[in-house]
Amino acid sequence: MRHLSPTSANRWLMAIFFATALASCASGGGTKKSPNDYNALLRNAEAELSAGRMEQALVGFNAAAQADPTRKEPWLRSAQLQFDAGNYGRAIVAAEEALKRDPNDKIADSVLTVSGLRVASKSLNRLQSSGALVSDAAQKEARDLATTMRNTMGRDFVLGEESKPQPRPQPKPPSSRPTKKPAKPAAAQPKDDNPFN
After folding, report:
1. What domains lie within the chain, and their CATH numbers?
2. Over the stretch 8-24, which tens digit does the pLDDT of each residue have?
3. Rounded distance, CA 23 to CA 21, Å?
């Protein structure tokens, strides 16, 4: 039996390693999923959601997103679920992923916007209650946010219902029906008890 030198053994090991690596690259590693897998994962996630198991549904939507990374639907559903659960940070992340796949999606855009506003509102309330809003930087950021909201949504929206001037009551228009004449006073009653007089 012939013995291999350390150099030739290393060459053989390297050749086997590269052959294995090439074979795994050529086969795709067995991780590529078909569109049927994506659709099945999406259906299963929706079924979990219908059964009231939100956490399992989120796991299913995540698996569907990994099965077909080009699709926005699993990200959009995750964004909606996270928003409804009050997990605004996670809703923002999922909505941004949906918008990467479809920049014109109105639902993802509104989830992103409203989630961001709720996070900003909570942060401002926390800063105000801790007295941290007295700093110039925090006040400038709050003013910038208010200006952006006023420019986007309108002055009345930012100021709220309380600041709107109350409308004056309108006078009642004259009625077009004829007015009734007052009733005639009753005739004077005779002083005696005889009704035939």
Report:
1. 35-105 (1.25.40.10)
2. 655 655 556 555 655 55
3. 5
